[in-house]
Amino acid sequence: MSTSTLTDRIWFDTVQAAxxxxxxxxxxxxxxxxxxxxxxxxxxxxxxxxxxxxLDAWMAGGAS
Length: 64
Fold this sequence. Notes:
Elements: E1 11-12, H1 14-21, H2 25-34, E2 50-51, H3 52-60
Antiparallel strand pairs: 1-2
C-alpha cells in the first residue's frame, strides 16, 4: 500500500480484503457471491467494496 496501511483503511476492494483477511481473492469473491460476506457493487459486474467491519465479522464467523 502506498500511503495507508491495511489496518488504517475503512473500505476494501477484493484484493485488499484478501490481504487483510489472509484468505485468497478467490475465497473472498466466493463469499461475496454466496452472501456469506457483505459487500457492495454499483451494478452487476462492477468492483466489490467491503467495509472493514463486515470483513471483521466474516472472519469472526458471525453474520456481516
